[in-house]
Amino acid sequence: RGVSREPGALWTEPGCRSCTCQEGRVLCDTVNCSIPCSHPLPAPAGGCCPTCTGCLHEGVARAEGDVFSPSDGNCSVCVCLAGNVSCLSPECPPGSCPSPSPSDCCSCHPAKCTFRGRTYAHGARFSLDGDGCTTCICQGGEVECSFAPCPILDCPQHQWHLRPGQCCSSCRDTPAPTGCFLDDNGVEFPVGQLWSPGDPCELCICQADGSVSCRRTECLETCPHPIRIPGQCCPDCSAGCTYMGRVFSNNETFPSDLDPCLSCICLVR
Fold first, then answer.
1. Which residue from 149, 155, 213, 148 is spatially nearest to 180, judged by alpha carbons?
2. Do residues 60 and 44 touch, judged by C-beta distance below 8 A?
């Protein structure tokens, strides 16, 4: 690079490459950084390796010997020493205490609650009178009770019903429909009844919930001259042949209406 180097010289090239001059040749390799700490700071400007003269904790640079509290607010105290962060939690007095907490970091609660002649441990949950409708909890030497929440019913209030042993009301069971009532013609069909509403290709059924389900029949014509029978959905290819408005049975012969010298035969294929 236009610069003369003495034999054995050692220098750093841009891109954190370490180079040396040996026997007239320049040998370069990537700088290998040894980091003897757990929370190193990023490399300073122009440097390649992180530094341990401080600590990087939760994205915040801390100076050597700095004492601080972590961001989670759990009352721990941390210190930066030789690039390592050490945190200590406060020691709280064991057991119960009758007075409020002496500090914001130590929670001090009575161990038990006495309620209606019975003793409950701190944090215990129990049901009032054993009915399951009221939930109580022992918290800080006091018993707090609350009613079990009831769901919002989607039926009118006159249909609400409180069953024996239940805490919340429920909707009365509505009787199952016995059939399907059609408003257009006033006809009621029983559940499971099949009928055609006027179109022979449409078939309806009365379902168990009182609704009507209809479906159309798709016909497949498999012969060139199908016969349509009144009241029947699909044309019939096995009944015979239609010719000039007349129906002839299979294998039946008849004179042609166009030429009396011609004789025709009905062949179902």
1. 213
2. no
Q: What's the DSSP call for residue 23?
A: T
- Looking at 2.10.70, 3.90.70, 3.30.390, 2.60.40, the CATH number of the domain 182-216 comes to 2.10.70
| Cβ count near 37 (within 10 Å) | 19
Q: What is the Cα Rg of the chain in Å?
A: 47
Pairing type for strands 84-88 and 253-255 reads unpaired
Residue 15 phi, psi dihedral angles, 5° rounding: 90, 15
Residue given tokens 């069909």 in the structure block:
189
- pTM, entire model: 0.33
* pLDDT score, position 192: 85
Report d(CA 246, CA 223) in Å as an integer.
Answer: 17
**pLDDT for the residue numbered 251:** 81
Which residue in this structure is represented by tokens 């400007």? 45
Can you list the alpha helix ranges (DSSP code H) found in 143-239? none
**Would you kindly state where each structural domain of the chain is located, as residue ranges?**
51-94, 113-146, 182-216, 222-268
- Tell me if residue 128 falls in helix, strand or coil: helix
Indicate the range of 19-28, 112-121, 168-177, 218-227 predicted with least confidence. Answer: 218-227
Give exposure, 76-91, as e/b (b: 16+ Cβ within 10 Å): eebbbeebebeeeeee
135-163: pLDDT as tens digits: 888 887 888 888 878 888 888 888 888 88
Question: Pairing state of beta strands 118-121 and 112-115?
Answer: antiparallel
Of 169 and 110, more confident = 169
Question: Which residue shows structure tokens 């709280």?
Answer: 92
Residue 28 has pLDDT above 80, yes or no: yes
- What is the b/e burial string over 2-27, where b = at least 16 CB atoms within 10 angstroms of the residue's CB? eeeeeeeeeeeeeeeeebebeeeeee
